[in-house]
């Protein structure tokens, strides 16, 4: 009777979960509220000031930020601290948790320790959320965005910084649109970058500067176009999204070197000032020179001071004082610097150059030579890299043929055609194990992380089919492991379903993790145990599943394996630390079930496991008791 009740409840639970997934997709976003104008309130004197515990209760009063009825009816007990946006036109809903910093900071007071705190919070909760929003003051937002872009290594999820010029609860405020848009971008668009969202633009964080202290379009990206435009539709320029292209997991590097500075040249700058600036403990300097990277070449004492600093290990990077443009060694006045060992900084912003220098110098295991080389490299899309010109879309015969058949001739129409066809073409190439076709699609502007009409990407398909070489290719070219199809399945889910253990290991090493609710995972494990499918249990364990997780009836996979007499599953589970003493809702353990007539072989296996543990190393309490007796 108990087994019948278990089966009925499991079927009902599975049906309910599957139906909810098909009807509505959800994303979880973590909001780090560090401070800034966006959450301030106006005091009696009409001055904006931060106030603790003010933002969240006020947001809950605004229906556009919090769907109160949905939260009361649908959220589970462990989700009660979440805020929930109304369902969007796309059918997706964003749930978000706000972590408020104490104290709240004016961004002018932020320093490197605050950058490390933000980065550590992202690292702590990285696996639990689909994206991150950082509410931040505008004055130093570009510095924080640049710093985080370097500190967050192998990033695979969006981190969106935003704020406002007027507090969010004022009658007129840019904060509402900025915050709402940031939640949507972080929850719906897998852009694996640190971004700044302001006005109607999404900008690469390390390419951003604050350009206007009084405009709602306060930030610009002077040397590259926006990553996304926020109009009636959100349009992402996927071809220019920076991807790490690695099979390593996300991690942070929070050891930033504080001994860096900005030195801006001006006519008549004294040698004494330059020498003083370059003295220890200075380890790195961003030199802001004239025009295309020029400095006076008729002052040998100035160049000598720079050369002496470089000779004792100071790294000096040259960038232009101009808002737009880059440094160029074509001029003799610029070449004089590079001949002394100054590193050309290309078109980096001052914020990016300074934080990159701090990041590179913070790598204690790198030599000075390596650090200098890294300053010349494009690490996070912060500097224009020399690259081949884009191959014309017309070079791909299929697109050309379809365009002609549909009488399409303009570039805009051809781009839309590509965006519609490429995801399906890439999925087809992945299914047929055709790496060359994927390479050609990528070279003609294809986004390897793009999903088809069902939300499935080439990585989903390759993981399901077991094409290891294709999976490796996709990961090395920046395909995201976090994309979800219309059923909320990630590529990791596909690899588990097909039991491709090698691919599961590769995806997990890259940062993939289980996103399903623990009860769903428990039901999948219990089902595999009931079928005696050890390879499926192995797949789930490789993916990070806890083999002791329990379902709605608090039954573990071992409960099910024992009750259905599945010997292979019992052996595997006991060999992988499954607990025999966990109680279900009927107060039964797996050991108790194994005492029934006909279960003698299983009972002996459990007893053997118990004997092994008892004869093994005692736990800490036993060790203490043993020590007391010895004394």
Spell out the blueprint of helices and strands.
Blueprint: H1 2-23, E1 25-35, E2 41-42, E3 48-49, H2 55-59, H3 68-74, E4 83-84, E5 92-105, H4 112-124, E6 131-135, H5 141-151, E7 152-153, E8 159-162, H6 175-188, E9 194-198, E10 201-204, E11 209-210, E12 219-220, E13 228-230, E14 234-236, E15 251-252, E16 260-264, H7 271-277, E17 284-289, H8 300-311, E18 315-320, H9 332-339, E19 343-344, H10 350-361, H11 368-376, H12 397-405, H13 411-431, H14 435-443, H15 458-465, H16 468-476, H17 491-497, H18 501-510, H19 518-530, H20 534-542, H21 557-563, H22 567-575, H23 590-593, H24 600-614, H25 620-630
Parallel strand pairs: 1-5, 1-6, 6-8, 8-9, 16-17, 17-18, 18-19
Antiparallel strand pairs: 2-3, 4-5, 7-15, 9-10, 10-13, 11-12, 13-14
Give a structural overview.
- The longest helix is centred in the first third of the chain and has 22 residues.
- The chain has four domains: 222 residues, L-asparaginase, N-terminal domain (Rossmann fold); 117 residues, Rossmann fold; 118 residues, Alpha Horseshoe (Serine Threonine Protein Phosphatase 5, Tetratricopeptide repeat), CATH 1.25.40; 96 residues, Ankyrin repeat-containing domain (Serine Threonine Protein Phosphatase 5, Tetratricopeptide repeat), CATH 1.25.40.
- The N terminus and C terminus are likely disordered.
- It is 41% helix and 13% strand.
- With 631 residues, the chain is of the alpha/beta class.
- It has a nine-stranded mixed sheet, sandwiched between helices.
């Amino acid at each position: 009777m108990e087994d019948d009740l278990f089966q009925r409840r499991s079927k009902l639970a599975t049906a309910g979960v599957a139906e909810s997934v098909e009807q509505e997709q959800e994303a979880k976003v973590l909001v780090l509220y560090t401070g800034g104008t966006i959450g301030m309130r106006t005091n009696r004197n009409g001055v904006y000031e931060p106030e603790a515990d003010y933002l969240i209760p006020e947001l809950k009063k605004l229906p556009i930020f919090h769907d109160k009825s949905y939260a009361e009816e649908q959220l589970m007990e462990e989700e009660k601290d979440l805020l929930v946006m109304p369902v969007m036109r796309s059918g997706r809903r964003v749930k978000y948790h706000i972590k408020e910093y104490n104290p709240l900071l004016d961004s002018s007071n932020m320093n490197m320790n605050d950058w490390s705190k933000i980065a550590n919070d992202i690292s702590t909760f990285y696996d639990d959320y689909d994206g991150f929003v950082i509410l931040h003051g505008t004055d130093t937002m570009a510095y924080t965005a640049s710093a985080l872009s370097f500190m967050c290594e192998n990033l695979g999820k969006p981190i969106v910084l935003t704020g406002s010029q007027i507090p969010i609860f004022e009658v007129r405020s840019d904060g509402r649109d900025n915050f709402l848009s940031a939640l949507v971008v972080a929850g719906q668009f897998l852009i694996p970058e640190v971004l700044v969202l302001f006005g109607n633009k999404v900008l690469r964080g390390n390419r951003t500067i604050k350009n206007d202290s009084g405009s709602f379009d306060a930030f610009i990206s002077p040397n590259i176009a926006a990553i996304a435009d926020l109009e009636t539709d959100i349009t992402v320029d996927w071809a220019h999204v920076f991807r790490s292209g690695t099979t390593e997991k996300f991690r942070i590097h929070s050891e930033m070197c504080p001994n860096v500075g900005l030195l801006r040249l001006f006519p008549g700058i004294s040698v004494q000032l330059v020498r003083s600036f370059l003295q220890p403990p200075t380890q790195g300097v961003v030199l802001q020179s004239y025009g295309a990277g020029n400095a006076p070449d008729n002052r040998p004492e100035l160049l000598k001071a720079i050369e002496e600093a470089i000779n004792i290990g100071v790294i000096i990077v040259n960038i232009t004082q101009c808002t737009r443009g880059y440094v160029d060694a074509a001029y003799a006045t610029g070449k004089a610097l590079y001949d002394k060992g100054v590193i050309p900084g290309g078109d980096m912003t001052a914020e990016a150059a300074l934080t990159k220098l701090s990041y590179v110098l913070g790598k204690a295991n790198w030599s000075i030579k390596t650090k200098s080389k890294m300053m010349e490299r494009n690490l996070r899309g912060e500097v224009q890299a020399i690259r081949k010109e884009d191959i014309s879309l017309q070079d791909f015969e299929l697109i050309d043929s379809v365009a002609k058949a549909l009488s399409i001739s303009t570039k805009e129409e051809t781009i839309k055609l590509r965006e519609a066809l490429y995801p399906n073409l890439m999925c087809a190439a992945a299914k047929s194990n055709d790496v060359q076709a994927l390479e050609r699609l990528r070279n003609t502007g294809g986004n390897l992380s793009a999903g088809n009409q069902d939300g499935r990407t080439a990585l989903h398909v390759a993981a399901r089919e077991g094409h290891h070489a294709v999976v490796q290719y996709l990961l090395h070219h920046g395909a995201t492991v976090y994309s979800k199809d219309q059923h909320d399945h990630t590529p990791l889910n596909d690899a588990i379903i097909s039991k491709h253990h090698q691919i599961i290991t590769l995806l997990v090493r890259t940062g993939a993790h289980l996103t399903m609710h623990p009860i769903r995972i428990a039901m999948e494990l219990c089902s595999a145990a009931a079928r005696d499918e050890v390879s499926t249990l192995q797949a789930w364990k490789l993916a990070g599943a806890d083999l002791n997780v329990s379902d709605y009836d608090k039954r573990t996979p071992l409960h099910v394996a024992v009750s259905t007499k599945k010997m292979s599953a019992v052996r595997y589970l006991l060999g992988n630390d499954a607990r025999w003493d966990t109680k279900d809702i009927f107060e039964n353990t797996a050991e108790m079930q194994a005492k029934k007539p006909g279960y003698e072989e299983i009972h002996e296996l459990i007893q053997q496991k118990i004997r092994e543990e008892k004869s093994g190393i005692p736990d800490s309490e036993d060790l203490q008791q043993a020590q007391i007796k010895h004394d």
